[in-house]
Design goal:
Elements lengths: L1 H7 L34 E3 H5 L2 H7 L6 H14 L4 E4 L2 E3 L2
């Protein structure tokens, strides 16, 4: 799951908006020809992680509970200090 998180946080992969600590969306001036998806972000949603369900099913064919396992492993990474829980369904690398 940590590899999935790292892939989510690469340039242009995470789909959630960058937010300030107040919860307000941050809008930054981007260079011409770039979009929000071209900006690296260390924030992603649980739904973004669910996009890897089929890939994880292929890696672990005996596991019939991939989505609950994704949530569990995000919590484990949080407990280890490798991930921060920002708000419901939103995660961030420290």
């Amino acid at each position: 799951m940590l590899n999935v998180v790292r892939r989510l946080c690469e340039v242009g992969t995470a789909r959630c908006a960058v937010r300030a600590p107040s919860g307000r969306k941050i809008s930054a001036a981007l260079p011409p020809g770039t979009s929000q998806r071209d900006v690296p972000t260390n924030t992603f949603t649980t739904a973004d992680a669910y996009a890897f369900t089929r890939e994880l099913e292929a890696l672990h064919p005996d596991n019939r509970n991939i989505r609950p396992k994704i949530r569990q492993q995000l919590q484990v990474l949080r407990d280890l200090g490798l991930l921060l829980h920002v708000e419901r369904g939103v995660w961030r690398l420290p």
